[in-house]
Structure formats: C-alpha cells, structure tokens
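Minutes, project check-in
Item: structure for the 360-residue chain
Input as provided by the requester:
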Amino acid sequence: MGLFSFNYDKEGPGIDKNAPKKGPIGEFFSILGTKFWRLVQINLLLVLFSIPALLVSFFVVNWLVPNIMPSLTPEHISKLLTSVGLGEALVKNLTVEAFASHLFVSTMLVFTAGFVGVQLFTVGPVHAGLTYLMRNISRREPAFTWMDFKDTAKSNLKQSIIHSIITALLGIVIGVAYYYYARVMAPSVFKTIMQTFMVVIFILFLIMQMYCYQLMITFDLKLKDVYRNAFLMTFLKLPSNFFTLLLNVLILFVIPYLAIWLIPHGLTNFILLIFYLFLLFSLTLFISNYQANRQIQRYLMPSDDDDDDNEGGLGAETAEFLGEEKSETERTFGQSRAPNPDGDDGEEAPEEDGPVGVPV
C-alpha cells in the first residue's frame, strides 16, 4: 500500500470489548498518541484563524505586563545582566542593551501566545469550533475537522463573539485592578489583601474558561447560564481544575520563559516558534477540554453505570445546589447542540420547568 493509498474496505483491528478500562491518565495519553497528528492540524487552524486574538493579546501584553512587572522592562533586564556579569558572557555581536531588548520582546511574545492559549483572548467562533473537535476527540467520537469546525463556529457565532469580548474586557479589568493595587496604592495590609484577591479571582476566571465554550457548544443555554454553570463546575472539582490550569501555564508560559532566559540563543526561539505553530495551543486546548468533558459528563450527563459507585452523576445535595430536576430516566440540564448542516439529528426534548433539553 502506498503512502497516500487508503483501503477503506479492509477492517481495522478495532477495540477489544474485554480490554481493561484505562484510568483517566492512561486514557489521556492513549488519545494523545492516536490523535497526535489531528492535534497538529487543529493547532494550525487555531493559529491561522486566531491572528486577530494574537494581535489584541500582543498590544495588551506590551501595555499592561511591563507596568505590572517592571522588572521585565528592557532597561531593568539590561541592568540585571550587567550587575551579575552576564552581559559580556552571553552577548558576542550585540550590545547588552540590544540583547536585553531581545529578551524583552521574546518574553512578551511568550505572554502573547500564552494568554491566547489559556483562552483569555480568543476569536469566539473559532474557539467554539475547535472546542467541538476537542470535545469529540476526548470522547473518542468522530468529527470532521473542517466541516464540524465550520458548522459549530457558524451555529455559535453570536454567543461566542459576545463571550470572547466579555472575557477579554474582564481580563483587562482584572489586570488594571491588580496594577492599581500593586503599583499605585501605598503599602498596607489592605493592599496585600486586594492583590491576593485579584490573583485568586484571575485564577478562577481562567478555570471558568475551560468550561465556557464546551458548555456553549454542548447545551442550548443562555450566556448567563453558561457562566453560572462554568462557575459551579469550577468549584465542583477545584483541585483537578487548578492542576489542569497549572499544567497549561507550565506548557505555555513557564517552560518557554525558562528556555528563553536560560538558553538565550536564536535557535531556542526558532524551536519555540515551531512548537507554538504546530502543537502547544492544541495540546493545552486538548488538556482543558479533556478535563472539562470528564467533569461535564460526570455531573451533567451521568450514565446509569456511574450511579453505582457515586463517581458520576449528582448526589442529592449537589443536584439541589445546581437547581437541577432529576428523574429515574433522565436528568435535564440544557438542550444539546451539535452541528448538522442538514438540520437536527433528532427530535428536540419537550420543554420542562427549569433548565430545558437533554444533553448529548
């Protein structure tokens, strides 16, 4: 069989029905291994269609980050290199000032890409479409990369655009508030408390973003209900949600930042560029959606098998907390939304009191 020859009549090996179930970590790496090149395709789509978000992120980062973190300005970096005697050791054909500017620009680019990666600055319809693909990959369900991406982006056009604008504005407001408490207010206990409060709010805000788009494309909810349920899902599994965010921050911010500063070479920047273009965005998006899909299916779309060990589904107290009406046959939480150019795949669930519809 040639490299580009495909025999669709021959059956594949399939999946053994009696194969032992993998744990969440084993399942994650199993999907990652089988869908790696699909993630590369999705990453290219994200980079191509998220150029407006990258530009907005770049301007906001260059305006806000140096004000919040004055130690990252070119002047301070230059003084730091000179004071520790690294200027001449690291710079051969550049002045220390030029090399400091290089480190500054590289760091700002890392922040620029990172804020897009954690879904702070997004092109709403693009992220909605890519979230649908990632959700299906996490579920091991089929999805056509271009068709489903396009259809989901179109069907969630208005809501996703509004959400992306709100997210960007709130992110900027939180950043400005932190700048005020960190740089403008006089030192005091109240200043320290408010700085800590803004950091906590920002972390919770970023965790919510892992759920917003998936709730949006999975259920027929108003935007305020998307935010309400994303907020609740944030706290239902806060430790694992925080670990997921921490892992994304490590991939998008910490490792590239350390690479730029510890291995200051043009080749380092080129390698990082390749990773950002082909993998890092889709990898972190997959990590976020894998986590979000597991928790949404556990709490909002529980299967009958989950009820036996109380791992899936909502307990009585949690169900009451979510304001969800349950029956023995179904738990309603929001009408499912799946893209289909020819119309709905099935009949709509009848309206009930409270949240309407049936999840996928």
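Outcome recorded: The longest helix spans residues 266-299.
No further action items on this chain.
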